[in-house]
Amino acid sequence: MIPQSFISDLLNRVDIVDVVGRYVQLKKGGANFMGLCPFHSEKSPSFTVSPTKQFYHCFGCGAHGTSIGFLIEYSGMGFVDAVKDLAQNVGMVVPEADDKIPPAQRAQIQAQSLALSDAMTQACDYYRGQLRHAPDAIAYLKNRGLTGEVAARFGMGYAPGGWDNLRSVFADYEVLALVEAGLVIDKVDEEGNNRKRYDRFRERIMFPIRNTKGQVIAFGGRVLDHGEPKYLNSPETPLFSKGFELYGLFEARQAIRDAGYVLVTEGYMDVVALAQMGFPQAVATLGTACTPTHVQKLLRQTDNVIFSFDGDKAGRRAARRALEASLPHVSDNKTIKFLFLPSEHDPDSYIREFGAAGFEQQVHEAMPLSQFLLKEVAGEHDLSEPEGRARVQFDAKPLLQLMAPSSLRLQIVRGLAQLTQSTPAEIEALFELAKPVAVARRAPPKSGRPVPVGLELKIMRMLVAHPPLSLQIDEAALAAFQHLGPDAAHNLGQLVGVGQALGEHGSFAALAQQLKELGSEYDEIIGEIAAGSESDYDSEQSWLVSTIREIKLNALKAELQQLFASGLPSEKIGVRYREIMQEQGELERQRDAELVNR
User: Fold this and answer.
1) CATH number corresponding to 103-233
2) How far is CA 188 from CA 177, 181, 185, 192, 327, in A?
3) Domain 378-431 has CATH 3.40.1710
4) Eight-state DSSP code of residue 263
């Protein structure tokens, strides 16, 4: 787990204008920067980035957050990856509580990663340059209906014939990084001697594979004729793992947001052909089955995922694996569908024969996950016989056990119960589903914590906008907050604790990032502050000090009344009475001195 102190220090060092500016064209507008929101379609800029608050906010869709939050939402990175990306840009090394790697070894690993990344970038530039002088490759791409614009967008290139063309690219062709990056192969004899090095990719159209940061981490190469293998991918390397990456995701991110869905295909050519024909929201798995990690990455980008598969047996098998990978991530606010083309077509061939409108109709008619699951388990079983219905339930059990309790799972259970002449409760009991929904007794809804109002809300806004103000609040003030109510005391106490932990240099961005990890109850206040103008720290501090003093005085008065009504012996009352009067006197003297100095 990354320490919160590191997160705070990181957010103090990075500049959100630089971070967002890598992806969004920003223009100065008063104290802030403005641009078109990358999270929803708009023609007039409503997206603002505040350099003083180190926060972004969209007045159109309400999106807001820190530099870390922006990378997570825009690039689809996980929290740790976003932190590491920002840290790398400002020369910080992310500490990890369970990291047992010595500093020298960690530095060596980082140097290796940098060397591999540099090698992939140089190779990509070389392949792109070679495509310009490869008439056969250009003719092949044109015959597939691709333009130079699309080829350039995806960084496509060409690996010419010959065994060691990369020797002209790298000063040291024998360097170990070229093998580790998967660019070359070392061939040795049975005794491990007579090593001969040669390029992995030869006479192939080259598709660079980028990670979410846009760095080239691998390649896919396609032959021009009927050679084997038709597609050759980079091997697993320290930079590249097939089960974690999706081809075209970096290029498709904005298009996915614009379209409202992502289309998942099986090949590189499908992605570029669909982009050429007006479907730039397409991505592809990399010669491997769809994994839960793939699904998780996709659902970070959009709430709607459509898998596109060929209609043949291989396509059905791939769809079944995608179904199994999707089930752990299914929820009621996410939609996953399956598109099956005729067996003689893939997306590339279908869209060239039937055009964009024909393919759009196929997308519109894609099969919902629930329907596909029930169709899969029903298979060819005879539902008129008990044995057939039992086999359907047997096949469905492991799939439903992958799903979290949800309304969608209940709907699928009901559909299965109808197919197999059972009840939903029987299915849930027989399958031992976690937290059964159909048989659960509904508890009366609990009233949520009251929404902060009045004085409590005003103090909360100040503490969120200016975290160092929390240092003005001592133990006596925290105790006095109880007189505002237990919920108010909890909210204010939590804010004070987080703010004081950040110290005198705590920022709004750092506090907002920590509150986001605690839940969503502070989102509305954070959004209001992000959208509002900058408040004056000195006047806020003056008001807070004065208000805290009045809260303490009111708390002392209430305690005094309780003391007289307690029935305690007079000597015990007298001791506390004198303490209260002394505390009241000191607070009143502070108030009078403040009035004189105004």
Assistant:
1) 3.90.980.10
2) 18, 18, 10, 5, 45
3) no
4) E
Q: Model confidence over 18-41: pLDDT tens digits?
A: 889 888 888 888 888 999 998 887
Helix axes 424-431, 407-419, angle to 10 degrees: 100
Classify domain 249-365 by CATH number: 3.40.1360.10
- Cα–Cα distance measured from residue 217 to residue 238, given in angstroms and rounded to the nearest whole number: 9
Same CATH topology for 103-233 and 249-365: the answer is no
**Residue tagged 């939590």 (tokens):** 494
pLDDT at 442: 44
Q: Which two tokens stand for residue 336?
A: 């996953």
Instruction: Please give the DSSP secondary-structure letter assigned to residue 228.
Output: S
Q: Using an 8 Å Cβ cutoff, are 39 and 58 in contact?
A: yes
* Inter-residue contact 337 to 305 (CB < 8 Å): yes
Report the alpha-carbon distance of residue 453 to residue 491 in Å, rounded: 12
Q: Where are the alpha helices (H) located in 402-522, listed in sequence order?
A: 407-419, 424-431, 454-465, 475-480, 486-502, 508-518
Instruction: Name the nearest CA neighbour of 526 among 78, 36, 79, 69.
Output: 69
Give the CA distances from residue 480 to residues 49, 488, 552, in Å, rounded to whole numbers and listed in that order. 38, 11, 5
What pLDDT score does 130 carry?
96
CA dist 267 and 348 (Å) reads 9
User: What confidence tens digit (pLDDT) does each residue in 181-218 have?
Assistant: 999 999 877 666 667 899 999 999 999 999 877 889 99
Report H helices in 132-267: 135-143, 148-153, 176-180, 249-259
What is residue 339's predicted lDDT score, i.e. its pLDDT?
A: 95
User: What six digits make up the tokens of 519?
Assistant: 């839940």
CATH topology of domain 4-89: DNA Primase; Chain A (3.90.580)
Tell me whether residue 548 is exposed, middle or buried, using C-beta atoms within 10 angstroms of its C-beta: 0 to 12, 13 to 18, 19 or more: buried
Q: Which residue has the tokens 């967002």?
A: 20
Q: Is the whole-model pTM more than 0.85? A: no
Boundaries of every domain in the chain:
4-89, 103-233, 249-365, 378-431, 454-523+534-597
Match 């001697």 to its residue by tokens.
193
Give the pLDDT of residue 106.
62
Mean pLDDT in order along the chain per 10 residues (598 residues): 81 87 86 88 88 90 90 83 84 67 68 88 96 94 92 96 94 93 87 80 95 88 87 90 90 88 92 94 88 87 90 85 93 92 86 91 95 93 93 95 91 95 92 74 47 77 89 86 81 86 85 82 85 82 85 82 72 76 82 70
Cis (ω within 30 of 0) for the bond into 229? Answer: yes
